[in-house]
Amino acid sequence: MPSVNPYYDKLPGSYLFSEIGRRVREFTAAHPRNRLIRLGIGDVTSPLPPSVIRALHRAVEEQADPEGFKGYGPEQGYEFLRRAIVEDSFRNLGITPEEIFVSDGAKCDLGNFQELFDLSCKVAVTDPVYPVYVDSNVMAGRGGEWKDGRFSGIIYLPCNAENNFVPDLPRERPDLIYLCYPNNPTGTVLTKDQLQVWVDYAREKDCLILYDSAYEAYISGPDLPRSIYELEGARDVAVEFRSYSKLAGFTGLRCGYVVLPRTVPAGRAAGGGTDLWSMWLRRQSTKYNGCPYIVQRAAEAVHSQEGRAETRTLVKKYMDNARVIRAAFEETGFRVYGGEDAPYVWVKLPAGLDSWSFFDRLLHEAEIVGTPGAGFGPSGEGYFRLTGFGDPSLTEEAAARLKRMYKAIPE
Ligand code: MLT
Q1: What is the spatial distance between Cα 261 and Cα 236, in angstroms, rounded to a whole number?
Q2: Range 290-294 contact pairs with CB under 8 angstroms and sequence separation of 24 or more
Q3: Which of 103, 134, 184, 212 for a ligand 1 pocket mutation test, highest count of atoms within 8 Å of Cβ?
Q4: Which residues lie below 8 Å from residue 37, measured CB to CB, with a gap of 6+?
């Protein structure tokens, strides 16, 4: 057999949600009659909005028609979708359709983007963190050694109740900084002033911010930034990643996009360096053949007047769930964060209770699946995540079970 990539061996165990799936399968095999409520992985539960379904049907019919049939699509995605995106979300932010790269989702884009950078690049992540940022860099060889729940080659920026979940600027200069706001997993947000600090830092230190805004539709605060390009100078130092998954229920359909301003300067490389826009185009056109036409038509419908109204209803439903979960934990005496401008509720566990033990306890005693904070990084230990993406009546039922399980948690 050929030698394999040695860096895969550096990854501890399995991907977080695969490990949760394994434990849940074990539980259901042993207790087949029990009714589990799944509030673990952030997967949506509502059907696709009617305007999206109609767009899909129309696009499928086109595929049966010799005039309408589509083969390979344009490398960056169809212009009708890139225009709709810019018109709907980036109208006054100086972004052009040429700067949008449509894909099959933000997870793939966030995992793949690190390929554009040299292995010597230092990566900073907020901690706790969506595991894809760290794991994809470890697979590439930027992780260093795994010790005490951390990779020696990654800069972790702790976010916890003590700093109000606002990361401090790194002491050591990173090349790449992953930020996700509204945040997965903590459900917390940064104000414009707080995010401006990062943009200014990136400009001063010549870093690139990889900004994951997959949850921007969940922002309700009028002054919170929905895109990093609302901040002064961000066009020169930030790439933004967006997704239709949580906005419009596309977790199964798959569509997302990267916003890569042409103003992001060329990276440094032997011989001068190529600009990132050209590199990403080269990478995508070599390794990827694009999101299906019918899915891009479905995504276009999300930006229509009707689609926008339908997705607002969807988002409200999930946010109502988040409020139900928040209230249940608060009533039982837990301290709770997030769940106000994000679909995730981040619960502080009582001192001495670790997050995987709480996961098992919640699974066995209340038959609720959540996500242990430790799975998101060392600073996630002592916290637990639940999602608002469940079915509303099951979420109510989970809240009732939780209240029965915990009469009161002492401070
Ligand atoms: C999560 O639960 O953190 C998300 O659903 C994962 C994802 O979007 O890939």
Answers
A1: 7
A2: 290/72, 290/73, 290/74, 290/75, 290/77, 290/102, 291/73, 291/77, 291/102, 291/103, 291/104, 291/254, 291/255, 293/59, 293/62, 293/63, 293/70, 293/73, 293/78, 294/56, 294/59, 294/60, 294/63
A3: 184
A4: 367, 368, 369, 390, 394, 395, 397, 398, 401
pLDDT tens-digit map of 383-407 = 999 999 999 999 999 999 999 987 6
Q: Helix 50-63 and helix 293-302: axis angle, to 10°? A: 150
Residue 313 has pLDDT above 60, yes or no: yes
Residues 166 and 194 in one domain: yes
Q: Is the pLDDT of residue 408 over 50?
A: no
Q: The CATH number of the domain where 106 resides is what?
A: 3.40.640.10
To test the pocket of ligand 1, the residue of 16, 24, 43 to mutate (highest count of ligand atoms within 8 Å of its CB) is 43
Residue 411 domain flag: no
Q: Over the stretch 138-186, which tens digit does the pLDDT of each residue have? A: 999 999 999 988 999 999 999 999 999 999 999 999 999 999 999 999 9
C-alpha–C-alpha distance, residues 22 and 219, integer Å: 33
**Whole-structure pTM over 0.90, yes or no?**
yes
- For 30-87, how does the pLDDT look when each residue is reduced to its tens digit (9 = 90+)? 998 889 999 999 999 999 999 999 999 999 999 999 999 999 999 999 999 999 999 9
From the CA of 371, give the closest atom in ligand 1: 2
Residues 329, 366, single domain; the answer is: yes
Residues with CB under 6 A from ligand 1: 41-43, 107, 130, 184
CB 334 within 8 A of CB 359: no
Q: Residue 30 sits in which domain range?
A: 6-47+307-405
Do the Cβ atoms of 356 and 293 come closer than 8 Å? no
Residues 243, 176 within the same domain: yes
For the segment 218-253, what is each residue's pLDDT rounded down to a tens digit? Answer: 999 889 999 999 999 999 999 999 999 999 999 999
